[in-house]
């Protein structure tokens, strides 16, 4: 009696523990030498001032923050975007005064803000019918340029605004240069992938694969000469990607380079060693290097490198300690020879082989790597081994791997997942369910409808059920995203939509859908439910109000994780 | 941090406690003088043999039981119906051998079984396109008669099968007599309400209001003479209704009579005193009276009356003890003078006035009374005062009150609830939400869309959103039910459907819907969600798989209560 409830108490206990973890990252160095940090110290993600000596944090923003920006060194002003639409991701820009802790709302129409540049001037990209660059001045906004394509802006200096995006093809990325109102799209070689441009002195530093594997280059914005930045230590590491380029207070070049799910920080080409894992940001002031660090056992922390001193490191609650026994990294060969880099997270609460969940990341342009992941921990805590695969389309393994998905969603990347699942059955998994959020939810629906015998059950959060309807409901940036993904083959929408294959569903399915989701909206998911119901298919569903695609608060996290864990406990 | 999760742990703790309560009722006396009981001892409702001396229970059925029947005294065979459709309420009839504990499935098409008579012969009413009486013989079934109207069968003896139903009008009830294949609909007076016929000797005993308040009568099936059974003690009690008529082993007449939320047991007109509360069944063997008893503080128990000895009385778990401070019964005058008998359950965890939930019962032909109610306890345990009103349409207060709803759903009965809510605001409730399941879910939707400022929030479980579509999806018995409720005014379907007023919704709403519900099906609720979504209305929703309208198991209970309690905690 009451088994189900015992499980719910266990699940509640785990989530209580997970919710207590104050995941923290560093976003710059502000006035007084304090670190600007984004943290989940209280119930939402907000900006804090972090003292690099004492580790003391002080909250700066009253409300939550949707998208922060990196401020200039020692700035007393900070810009960030905040959702003003209960999760629909219609944002406004805010200016925060660090000293007064006062927020000023910029006068603008709410829209989806996707990147912010805060330098001598402030710009952001906002998306409605088009993707538009706005200049922010005197508390107001002014249009600079508009594009149909998907892009981001990354830096500004002395009249030059830079960024990068998919301007010429879904399989290449070009630099965007805007000076004195004139727009230039630059590539050193047609078809190459050029990213992360920043302005150092009067030059543009960026990463590019135009000579093979990704390397760093300097572009003269006047002459358009491109010169390679040769750094022996970076070459020796031979990274697959550069995930972060920035500059120190004295124009030191900061590069974070990535390989096999881990990354390293280089300052002017010299590696600044730290613990093994992942670095997502780094800043340099007077020889000190502050970075955001995480690995599979360490929640997102702020570390002073060189000294290897944690300035802020969240404690892992007792009930979660030791639930992950081991993390195995393995490249698994897929049907066409593509290697699928996979993290196998073994729960210490189960035998091997045991119950396993294939947890598929979103994006698809994102990555599962050596980091502390809340969803993974929640699953491991319930005794599931977790399989996290970087299917084609994932970042972190070079542009070739990332771009292989273009034009073929619910195709090759799904086969990658199926191949990985098959190769681990028996060895790691006695039985396996599949779960994911966003693109991971889409993969779950694809897997259950196109390979109905492969998984014991599935949990699809904020999933894509029908590309046709979703495209109609999308704003410019997400229309652009879908066109990129399909490489313009919009005629494939129906063929690549799970709703088309609903009749194949056999395994128990749990749908979790935020009501205000403006990326993967509720409407097509409701239609999917109707179709499943008409076909007599069994499904569970949870529609979450006042929540959009992004998990903004602890409650959002609980609203998604709770039904997932309860469902898995029932079905596995 | 983690407040939400603390609440979830508290909710899980409460549900664990509630799930441990083995609610038990007695359904007859079987071979060896054991009591046949229906109990939730394990995770589902099943039949048990209960020793009247030791109180020891022994499980008789392997699986769960949807609808049991009363067997003849000292029978070794028991008939019951079981859902064979994951909650869709398509049943099959089963014969249970008490000694061998073996179940035999009767050869039949699955259908909704609504009443079973087990005497010298076995009959049941099954509903598909029509409501049909079947005779069960030799493991097979044979059609006896079919009706469009809603009715039930209650007894059989020596070739005569009796029952009662709404044969002539939605505002009266007639006796059904079937002998030698000939069907007769009998009423002592046109428009009167005649119910509960049983056969005692060669006469029919029944209750009727044809001379005013409900009394007991004897009908001679040959001459059709009707004679009043004058029992002084019953007359002195002057009940509003008879809720149970049956006979003892030696043909004693057992009557359970009801008034103001409590009932009394009479044997041959003499009251058999017991604790104050409610008796739902009673059986007499050799001077001993066994009954099912409950009150607001006692879960459904089996008691030997006269001696007032509990044979089986479920323990109330520690965490639930004392959460109900007081139960107040009050008749509250509605807009047209109708008295609305209301139970006000005060939580000991809150001040008065405090947070309150108006918990609306289903039916509408059902009743909130002095009984241990799991939903009420779950709310009181979370610190809510609970208001339970017997709006017009409810049973327990005489046919006039019950029949007042006919032809006017989402009308007078809704006003009753609104009047009660208004009269208790300030005195009992600082703020009030409304919640209900089935017809109570319908009332919740009606209240939130027709009186959008009245309640702070609402939880609608297994609700009616659209009568038009629901009617189309219904089988004969539920088409008949809807026609009764509307008194044939099917033209009012649209006007009385919450979907028509969806645009009025203001308060936060939580929809909880079993997927396999064949009474209030998912399809119209999904359409309601679509409409709310199009109108930009905020709602939460939970669709529960493998579950129908009826709560069959502990897991079903948890699946409904859990989201309700979490939602209320969030909104109040």
From TrEMBL, chains A, B:
Transmembrane segments: none
Residues of the Acylamino-acid-releasing enzyme-like N-terminal domain: 53-302
Keywords, alphabetical: Hydrolase
Ribonucleoprotein among keywords: no
Peptidase S9 prolyl oligopeptidase catalytic domain mapped to chain residues: 372-571
Presence of keyword Hydrolase: yes
Gene Ontology BP term (one): proteolysis
GO MF annotations in UniProt: serine-type endopeptidase activity
Pfam entry (one): APH-like_N
Protein name: Peptidase S9
